[in-house]
Design a protein that fits this description.
Distance between the termini: 46 Å
Largest sheet: 5 strands, mixed
Number of helices: 18
Strand content: 5-15%
Strand order of the largest sheet: 2-1-5-4-3
Low-confidence stretches: none
Structural class: alpha+beta
Radius of gyration: 32 Å
Shape: flat
Order of helices and strands: HHEEHEEEHHEEHHHHHHHHHHHHH
Helix content: 55-70%
Oligomer: single chain
C-alpha cells in the first residue's frame, strides 16, 4: 500500500470512529432524557396519588404536583366516581396500556405514568407531564463527553501520520504488520475486559437503581459500606482459608509429577485419569460430590459407618463445610498443576542431573539443589494463578452450599453475586469487586517480589 493510500485510510478510519462516537453519544443522550422524564413522571404520579388520598381534587393535585416538579401536569381518571365531576376521563386505549405495563412511558414532549389507588394496587388513571424548559435538556453532541475522546482520537491520528512520514519504509511495514496481528486480540481485550473493568470502577462510585436506571454519584460511600459490612469481612476470611488449598495442591501435584515423570506402561493412562477432573464440568462435579457427601446415603459416610467411624454432616455443618469444598477443589486442580509441573520437569536439561549424579548427589539432593531451583518459574506461575483462581471461586459454592451453613462457605465472589443480583445493590457489589481486585493485585506483587527475583537468578 502506498503512503498516500495509508494516509487516506487513516483519515477515513478516524472520521468513521468520530462519527460512530457522536452517534453513540446521541443515542445515550436520548436514552438519558427519556429515562429522566419517565422517572419524573413516576415521582409526579406518586405525588398526585398522595394529594388525592388526602382529599385534593385531581386537577388541583395535578397543579400542585406540577408546581413542585416544575412541569405542566394533567390527570385523567378511569371514572369520576368519588372524584370531582369535572375530572377528565381517560381514553380506553390509554387506560388499558397503563394497566398492562404499569410503567412510565416517554412521549414526544414529556412522559406519562399510571396513577394508582391508595392501596397501590389498581390503576385508576394516567398522569401526563411536560417538563418546563431547562428542567431536562439534552447535553448536545459537543460536550465534554465528546470533546475529550474526539480530541484524543485526532491527536493520535496526527501523531500516527507524523510517525509515518518520519519512519523508513521497511520499519513502517514491519510495525504495521505487527499491529495488524495484534489488532483483533487487543480489540477483544478492550471490549470484553478493559471496558467492563472501567465500568466497574465507575459504578463503584454510584448508587445504581436497576429498575429506573438512575445513577446517583455517592463517591466513596459504597466503599465505606463495604468496610463496615461484617458479613463481607467474614467472606474475606473464608476465602483466605479456602485459598490455603493452593500450597497443599501444589505439593501433591509436584509429588505426582515426579512419580509420573517416567516412561512405563500405564503412565499415560494415569496422567489422563488424574487430569480428567480439571476438564470436566464444574457443575457436574459439584452435583456428584454433593451425593458423595450426603449424610444419610452418601458413599463417604456409608464407608465410614462400615468401619465404625462417625459420619459427619459434611456440607451441613459449619465445622466441615469449607473443608469439604477445599477437598473437592484439590481433587479438581491437582491434575492441572501436575501437568504444568510435568512440563517444567521435562524442560530441565538432563545433563544437569547427570552432573549432580557424578558429583555424588543422591535423589533428595538432586531434587533440592537442581530440580527445585529450576522449577521456580513454574512454581511462581502455579502459585499466582492458583491464588487468583481461589479468590474467584463461585460455582462450587453456588451449587453445593449456597454460602451456608451460617455463612461458613460464603466467599467473596458469591457475596458480590448476591449483593448485585439478589439485593440489587450494584454500587456496593462493584465496590466489593474493586476491593477484590486490589487484594489480588497486592498478593500478585508480593509473590513476584518474593519469588520473581530469585527466579531471574536461576
Amino acid at each position: 500500500m502506498s503512503a498516500a493510500a495509508v494516509r487516506a485510510t487513516t483519515v477515513a478510519a478516524a472520521t468513521l470512529l468520530a462519527a460512530g462516537w457522536l452517534a453513540l453519544v446521541a443515542v445515550r443522550d436520548s436514552s438519558r432524557v427519556r429515562q429522566e422524564r419517565e422517572t419524573l413522571a413516576l415521582s409526579v404520579a406518586a405525588d398526585v396519588r398522595r394529594l388525592i388520598v388526602q382529599g385534593t381534587a385531581p386537577d388541583s393535585a395535578a397543579a400542585l404536583a406540577g408546581a413542585r416538579a416544575n412541569a405542566d401536569v394533567s390527570v385523567c381518571l378511569a371514572s369520576r366516581a368519588g372524584h370531582d365531576p369535572s375530572s377528565r376521563l381517560c381514553s380506553p386505549s390509554r387506560l388499558d396500556s397503563a394497566r398492562t405495563t404499569e410503567a412510565a412511558a416517554a412521549t414526544s414532549s414529556g412522559a406519562r405514568a399510571p396513577l394508582k389507588d391508595a392501596d397501590d394496587w389498581d390503576v385508576i388513571g394516567v398522569v401526563e407531564l411536560t417538563p418546563h424548559p431547562g428542567v431536562i435538556e439534552p447535553r448536545g453532541l459537543l460536550d465534554a463527553r465528546s470533546l475529550v475522546p474526539l480530541s484524543a482520537l485526532f491527536l493520535a491520528t496526527g501523531a500516527f501520520l507524523s510517525w509515518f512520514r518520519r519512519t523508513g519504509q521497511l520499519r513502517r511495514e514491519r510495525t504495521l504488520a505487527a499491529w495488524g496481528f495484534l489488532a483483533a486480540p487487543l480489540l477483544h481485550l478492550a471490549v470484553f475486559s478493559l471496558l467492563p473493568a472501567i465500568f466497574t470502577f465507575v459504578l463503584a462510585l454510584h448508587r445504581w437503581d436497576l429498575v429506573t436506571g438512575a445513577r446517583e454519584f455517592v463517591g466513596l460511600a459504597n466503599f465505606g459500606s463495604v468496610t463496615r459490612d461484617e458479613l463481607f469481612r467474614t467472606t474475606l476470611r473464608n476465602t483466605a482459608v479456602y485459598v490455603l488449598y493452593v500450597p497443599a495442591t501444589m505439593a501433591l501435584a509436584l509429588a505426582l509429577a515426579l512419580w509420573l515423570d517416567r516412561r512405563a506402561r500405564g503412565v499415560r493412562l494415569l496422567r489422563a485419569i488424574v487430569f480428567l477432573p480439571y476438564v470436566s464440568s464444574v457443575v457436574a462435579i459439584a452435583l456428584a460430590w454433593q451425593w458423595l457427601f450426603n449424610t444419610d446415603y452418601g458413599f463417604i459416610n456409608t464407608a465410614l459407618r462400615t468401619i465404625g467411624l462417625p459420619a459427619p454432616d459434611w456440607l451441613g455443618s459449619p465445622a466441615t463445610a469449607l473443608a469439604a469444598l477445599i477437598a473437592v477443589t484439590v481433587w479438581i486442580q491437582v491434575g492441572y498443576q501436575m501437568v504444568v509441573f510435568l512440563a517444567g520437569l521435562q524442560g530441565i536439561p538432563r545433563h544437569y542431573l547427570d552432573a549432580a549424579v557424578v558429583d555424588g548427589a543422591g535423589p533428595w539432593q538432586q531434587f533440592r539443589h537442581v530440580t527445585l531451583p529450576l522449577l521456580r518459574p513454574v512454581i511462581l506461575f502455579v502459585m499466582v494463578t492458583g491464588i487468583i483462581g481461589g479468590f474467584q471461586v463461585f460455582t462450587l459454592v453456588y451449587v453445593m452450599t449456597e454460602g451456608g451453613p451460617l455463612h461458613s462457605t460464603d466467599v467473596v465472589v458469591y457475596r458480590i453475586y448476591q449483593t448485585a443480583w439478589e439485593f440489587l445493590r450494584f454500587g456496593e457489589a462493584s465496590a466489593m469487586a474493586v476491593v477484590l481486585f486490589a487484594i489480588l493485585l497486592a498478593l500478585t506483587v508480593v509473590q513476584f517480589r518474593l519469588l520473581g527475583r530469585r527466579t531471574e537468578l536461576v
